[in-house]
Amino acid sequence: MERVRQLLEPHREALVAKAVRLALDGDTTALRLCLERLSPPPRPEGRSVVLPALETAHTLTEQAHAIMGAIAAGQVPVDVGQQLLASLAHVARATEVDELATRVSALEEQENCG
């Protein structure tokens, strides 16, 4: 990608002028490109979420249920709920890996002692 930028850089002004001319002449693709550069879509803000049910949930399953309940009750938007569930899935995977590593270590130690 950086190589492409280096190749286009000397032609930057001419390319922008051409895109503007095409947009003004009715080229809808060029028009969309120009408008997207002038006003890019807003990025979602990072916002904190407080879910009392999540704070009292002890297991990953209870936490997932708390998140789903908050989505269903309209306490959090669906996209935020999806991000929370995805984060919870990553935590579950990390926990699983840690537990497996602990079990393997215990088995290896047991085998070495026996």
Could you describe the 3D structure shown?
- The protein has helices at residues 2-8, 12-24, 28-38, 52-56, 60-72, 78-113.
- The chain has 114 residues and is mostly helical.
- Helix 2 (12-24) crosses helix 3 (28-38) and helix 5 (60-72) packs antiparallel against helix 6.
- The longest helix has 36 residues, at 78-113.
- The protein is elongated.
Name the shape in a single word: elongated
Sheet-strand content, in percent, reads under 5%
Low-confidence stretches at least 5 residues in length (pLDDT < 50)? none
Which class do the helix and strand fractions yield? mainly alpha
Averaging pLDDT over every residue, what do you get? Answer: 89
* Largest sheet features: none
Compute the number of strand runs. Answer: 0
Strand and helix order: HHHHHH
The domain tally reads: 2
Radius of gyration: 26 Å
- Residue share in helices? over 70%
Span between N and C termini? 57 Å
Question: What is this entry, summarized?
Answer:
This protein is an all-alpha fold and 114 residues long.
How is the secondary structure organized here?
Elements: H1 2-8, H2 12-24, H3 28-38, H4 52-56, H5 60-72, H6 78-113
Quick tags:
single chain, 114 residues, mainly alpha, 2 domains, 6 helices, 75% helix, elongated
